[in-house]
Amino acid sequence: MTASATPSDISVAVERQPGSRVQMRIEAPASDFEVAVSAALRRLASRVRLPGFRPGKAPGAMVERAVGWDAVRQEAVDALLPVLYGRALDEAGVQPVDDPELDIQPVDRGEPFIFTATVTVRPDVELGDYASLRVEVPSTEVTDEQVDEMIEELRRRNSELRDVERPAQAGDALRCSLVMRRGDEVLSGDEQNDRDLDIDRERLLPGLADALIGMEAGQERSFQLTLPDDFAQEELRNVAVDVHVRVGAVRERVLPPVDDSLAAFDEEHGTNLDELRADYRIRLEEVSGGKDREALEAAALERLRDHAVIELPESMVEREIDRQIADLDVRLQQMGMPVERYLEYTGSSMEKLRGESREAAVQRLKLELALDALGRAEGIEIDEAAVVREEERLAEGRKPTAEQRRRLHQRAHLDLARRASADRLIEIVRGEG
Fold first, then answer.
1. 268-296, pLDDT tens digit by residue?
2. CB 374 within 8 Å of CB 308
3. What is the pTM of this model?
4. How many Å apart are CA 410 and CA 290, to the nearest integer?
5. Hey, how many other C-beta atoms are within 10 angstroms of the C-beta on 81?
6. Which residue ranges form the domains of the chain, and what is each CATH number?
7. What residues contact residue 184 under an 8 Å CB cut-off, 6+ apart?
């Protein structure tokens, strides 16, 4: 157990306990408690009506007689406790991850104010020989087929549509109305307005293109589809929906020829076909290089996370699950859907949702803690000017309060520190020292 004192003579004794738990014994001098009692009497005076006195003007002694010493003492303790707890955290350098368990000793006038606070803190992280971590560095080559695909996309964007009197084929466009429903609810589409819909298996929902092939002008068709598990709206993934299509016209695409005249449609990137292909290859290589870098970073982060030895406190995991559920709730509210309705749509429950969120919460926490530990081990420092710039970016033009700005500053510093740790990790896994 260690003890120390702040300039105001508060004493903090810290005892480390198993399971990432810390117990602090905090003792404030009797003078601190007397100040808190005086402040409590002033607050109570404004609430108590005493004959002959305006609210807040009655002497403290009369207020105490009116409400009783126990009420005064409780008012003082309630106000003093969070202040002393915050000062103790700063003094001891303790970073709690949950609310404290408090044990307050009885206190009276002329006595020191003593209490213990037991909290869960961030766990220790064992990185071991992290300098030897290695991952395969991806390197994806751009193929001629990928360049051809970009040329074909340019042709498709600049094609003409011509009505034909035959059943629809793959590659055609239907002038049609398409409405997708779930029960009585219209999810997308409008029966009153036609639009051009390309019959393209790569772009349409699974099974939709095949359902459209063979349709003719003037024909209507109804069928059912199951939305894919990567559908944009999470609550509709793997949900069966009803689709109704009414075709106004079948239209064939007439593509421009593959020759130098194609450059007229994309003059910014070439004056002839060879220049277009060369420019497209460079652009594809830039995209490919970016994806390779993302894949390398993902592999490196996974390697570090799995390498680190961390025993996560249960309360820390539960808080991260709470955060994930809150984020989901915000996203659902933006779509006008209460979380209860989402659970009903997906046939789930809050208990099941929390269970499904647990693994992601554990992996996220382990990665964040491992990155923080790596930053400390490597002595990474963040430029304060960069933190201020990031803080302003996060503020998004708002004028935050002092407390909001303090939190923004902490978040900005943490984000930049983890970004720097990730950059250093990539150097390590590449074997660059």
1. 999 999 999 999 999 999 999 999 999 99
2. no
3. 0.67
4. 29
5. 19
6. 2-121 (3.30.70.1050), 160-254 (3.10.50.40), 291-429 (1.10.3120.10)
7. none
Report CA-CA distances (Å) from 121 to 79, 165, 252, 255, 315.
24, 73, 66, 65, 10
pLDDT value for 42: 87
Q: Please give the single-letter amino acid code of residue 47.
A: R
What span, in angstroms and rounded, lies between the C-alpha atoms of 166 and 161?
14
232-266 per-position pLDDT tens digit: 888 888 999 999 999 999 999 999 999 999 999 99
CA gap 215, 145 in Å, rounded: 31
Model confidence at 1: pLDDT above 80: no
Whether pLDDT at 399 is above 50: yes
Q: Tokens at residue 43, please?
A: 């607050």
Q: Is 329 exposed, middle or buried (0-12, 13-18, 19+ CB in 10 A)?
A: middle
Kindly state the average pLDDT of the residues 64-70: 83
Span 332-375, pLDDT tens digits: 988 888 889 888 888 889 999 999 999 999 999 999 999 999 99
Three-state DSSP string of the chain = CEEEECCCCCEEEEEEECCCEEEEEEEECHHHHHHHHHHHHHHHHCCCCCCCCCCCCCCHHHHHHHHCHHHHHHHHHHHHHHHHHHHHHHHHCCCECCCCEEEECCCCCCCCEEEEEEEEECCCEECCCHHHCCCCCCCCCCCHHHHHHHHHHHHHHCCEEEEECCCCCCCCEEEEEEEEEECCEEEECCCCCCEEEECCCCCCCCCHHHHHCCCCCCCEEEEEEECCCCCCCHHHCCCEEEEEEEEEEEEEEECCCCCHHHHHHCHHHCCCHHHHHHHHHHHHHHHHHHHHHHHHHHHHHHHHHHHCEECCCHHHHHHHHHHHHHHHHHHHHHCCCCHHHHHHHHCCCHHHHHHHHHHHHHHHHHHHHHHHHHHHHCCCCCCHHHHHHHHHHHHCCCCCCHHHHHHHHHHHHHHHHHHHHHHHHHHHHCCCC
Q: Are strands 21-28 and 113-120 parallel, antiparallel or unpaired?
A: antiparallel
In this predicted model, which residue has the larger pLDDT, 59 or 282? Answer: 282
In whole numbers, what is the pLDDT of the chain averaged over residues? 90
Dist. CA 365–CA 310, nearest whole Å: 10
